[in-house]
């Protein structure tokens, strides 16, 4: 089975070709235009997708050394995401499937961040069911109990900001360019995480809250700057390390509770923030510390990519979950 997968939910235009559960090509075009605005501008994202989609799909097919006629199906991201961005990918996928007379498969982007663990990669083991997934990304923060490929339940989620937003907004407060998450991580690796203490939010059960942390960081920085205008520049590594440490602690505390409540101790992380060095280390350390079995995705399958859409497409292809061209994109989508 050869699947062409298309991902265009936010600001990255991505295409991948899979042969069964193996990735033959995985191409991503990042849209650099948003950096100057300090965040994704939806209208500009849609336009950039329109410019990028043909060359990106072409590159994915060429790298995989596959012709269009060999494809078994086309998978695309149905949602959640920005409507204008989603429409570019879905319209292209529909037209191409119609022209080639092959099945069309729709994929939930958040399922894909989780099921990316089922891509066949040397040195990476696949989880077995049931397992818990911590999905940490730019728009979501969820703990999901995954019973099977298409049987999963959200057992905890953020009540306000997503963890990726917490990273990006903290970075913005510190004057780092957008998207700041990876830069906070870079500085954090050079700093001492115990330098500054930020209080962790008290949220009942398995839910999260990150908006308070952002405010705490803002007040902290404003206060310190009164005494020393160069405070941020002089302490950037320690500030970032302390912020990252706090965020990782919040995530790990909830995971520990989720393991206790469900009795499931296989944990997989996914989404853009699973690229973060702090959470990757904390999850791996939990194997020794708590006896969990943990799964950390290959770096290129953390932030948005089409390979993860392709693996869900492959699973849906096997169970013949196809769509007609009447399928609609959804900015918000039933999990
Ligand atoms: P969603 O998947 O919820 O729809 P999205 O697709 O926009 O949102 P992803 O691409 O999955 O989000 O993740 C992007 C987020 O990951 C951004 O907030 C970015 O700052 C964050 N991120 C990426 N790398 C790191 C890192 N090393 N440390 C911290 N955050 C990171
Ligand atoms: Fe994503």
UniProtKB/TrEMBL annotation:
Q: Name one Pfam family in it.
A: TsaD
Cellular localisation: Cytoplasm
Cofactor: binding comment:
Binds 1 Fe(2+) ion per subunit.
Tagged with keyword Secreted:
no
EC category name: transferase
Recorded catalytic activity of this chain's protein: L-threonylcarbamoyladenylate + adenosine(37) in tRNA = N(6)-L-threonylcarbamoyladenosine(37) in tRNA + AMP + H(+)
Check the record and name the CDD domains matching this protein. ASKHA_NBD_TsaD_bac
Binding-site residues for substrate, renumbered to this chain: 135-139, 168, 181, 185, 276
Cofactor dependency: Fe(2+)
Q: Which residues are listed for Fe cation binding in this entry?
A: 109, 113, 304
One Gene Ontology term of the biological-process aspect is: tRNA threonylcarbamoyladenosine modification
This protein's record includes keyword Plastid: no
InterPro entries in alphabetical order: ATPase_NBD (IPR043129), Gcp-like_dom (IPR000905), KAE1/TsaD (IPR017861), TsaD (IPR022450)
Q: Name one GO cellular component term.
A: cytoplasm
Segments forming domain Gcp-like? 22-310
EC number(s) from the headed UniProt entry: 2.3.1.234
Keyword terms, alphabetized: Acyltransferase, Cytoplasm, Iron, Metal-binding, Transferase, tRNA processing
- GO MF, one example: tRNA N(6)-L-threonylcarbamoyladenine synthase activity
Write out the function statement from the record: Required for the formation of a threonylcarbamoyl group on adenosine at position 37 (t(6)A37) in tRNAs that read codons beginning with adenine. Is involved in the transfer of the threonylcarbamoyl moiety of threonylcarbamoyl-AMP (TC-AMP) to the N6 group of A37, together with TsaE and TsaB. TsaD likely plays a direct catalytic role in this reaction.
> What's this protein's family per the entry?
Belongs to the KAE1 / TsaD family.
Name of the featured protein: tRNA N6-adenosine threonylcarbamoyltransferase
